[in-house]
Amino acid sequence: MSRRFITLLLVIGAFFQTMLPSWNVFGSLELPLLTGLIICIALHTERAKMFYAAVLAGLLHDALCPAPLGLSIPFFIGLASGVYWIRDEIFGDEPATYAVLGALAVISETLYYALIFKLSGLRPVSGTLIALRLAGGLIAGAVVVPLISLLVVYLQHFNAEHRRRYI
Amino acid sequence: MLVQKSFFKWATAVTALVLLFNLPGGCTARFKGLFKDAITPLQGFSIKTMQSLKEGADSVRGFGGLMKENSRLSEELIYLQTRLVELENLEQENRHLQDQLDFYGRQKRALIPCQVSARTISGWWQSVRLDKGRAQGVEANRSVISPDGLIGRTQNVSAYTADVLLLSDPACKVSARVNRTGSFGLVSGRGVNAQGYPVARMQFIHKDTPVQAGDAVMTSGLGGIFPKNILIGYVEKVGLEEAGLYQYADIIPKAVTELMDVVFVSAENENAEAEE
């Protein structure tokens, strides 16, 4: 995966995440496109690029919401590092793996933001909202992340095939 | 040598991140503005495309239903039905635009019409993005209204975009007044309910005031951001707070529920108006 490909994926992912409607039943939960992309990138690329992707995802996320810039970077770095760390121990390209990783990632994301908001006093966060978002995150992560991974793998193959044809 | 090079690379990355976390607000706002300004035209284009697709789908749906009901309908009739659907859509759009124009003309204060271009990337915030920013005269902490009432206030403003914190966001607080009784209180957002409707709550209403469901809640003009006598919404439910000192009223913020694609940002500071 080249840096250009990663940048393109994340920018498109961030764009779609702002355009797709949120899940009101689960506390306005957004579809975890950036989270899914980071999981895919961490499973398919080397450490430096994984780090680059995590920082870029954090910057894009914070630039497109009212959060202070830099708030999401530690989460994305933590997520990418965690996935990178265990990637030799798991079946990387199985939809079930993506589903489990996706659900866990979205749950940790909810807990991370809830903790940060609570500690910093940045936003009022209620227990009901966290519970709703956790429940929604479990479903959204398990469904959306495998779909994103399929798309990324397809695009990656298409990209490689396309390049090979024109060499 | 290789280890040393790698160490320097990581040290530079960590230093850059630490610097980023400690940048002053002005620098990060400019940086964030660059991202938003770059992506907003694309978002505007997508919204327009989606609207066209939706209109197309509506026409096709009407066409399909017609085919089921009357298989013998001639092409001319189908054409006329499609035209009728189109005309109805146009009529509805015309009515909306007329309402907005009337509202714009009625206002004594200067307003900047803006198009809603996107929503925020994170569901933790109840906010939308407008397609106008500092270059068009939009400033932070200005009230955002529509013919249906108060929508919220501008928060982060870049050169060509402005984020609006909706009335349903818990961080958006408005000094309000119950129109019928004249009692004051503080309205703050409570997110979105399971049906997807935004909700807000008016707190600190005097416990002896006879507030009832259906009462209109207006802005009080106190606080310096929101103008006086703008409709916030209607009371849905009234209750007594735990301590028993005050009443609260759950409100349906009408303008947020029926959020239009065009909204108006106040061009003047309400404080400046009060000083005059």
Task: Please give the structural blueprint.
The complex is a heterodimer of chains A (167) and B (276).
Chain A (H helix, E strand, L loop, with lengths): L2 H17 L13 H12 L2 H17 L9 H14 L8 H26 L6 H40 L1
Helix pairs in contact in A: 1-2, 1-3, 2-3, 2-4, 2-5, 2-6, 3-4, 5-6
Chain B lengths: L1 H20 L3 H45 L5 H32 L4 E9 L7 E4 L12 E4 L2 E9 L4 E5 L6 E6 L5 E9 L5 E9 L9 E4 L11 E10 L5 E8 H4 L4 E5 L3 H6 L1
Antiparallel strand pairs in B: 1-2, 1-12, 2-5, 3-4, 3-12, 4-5, 6-7, 6-9, 7-8, 8-11, 9-10, 10-11
Helix pairs in contact in B: 2-3
What does this molecule look like?
The complex is a heterodimer of chains A (167) and B (276). The mean pLDDT of chain A is 85. Chain A has helices at 3-19, 33-44, 47-63, 73-86, 95-120, 127-166. Chain A contains six helices and no strands. Chain A is 75% helix and 0% strand. Chain A is globular. Chain B is built from five helices and twelve strands. Chain B has a six-stranded antiparallel beta barrel with strand order 1-2-5-4-3-12. Chain B has a six-stranded antiparallel beta barrel with strand order 6-7-8-11-10-9. In chain B, a hairpin with a 7-residue loop joins strand 1 and strand 2. In chain B, helix 2 (25-69) packs antiparallel against helix 3 (75-106). The radius of gyration of chain B is 24 Å and the shape is globular. At the A-B interface, helix 1 and helix 3 of A face helix 1 and helix 2 of B.
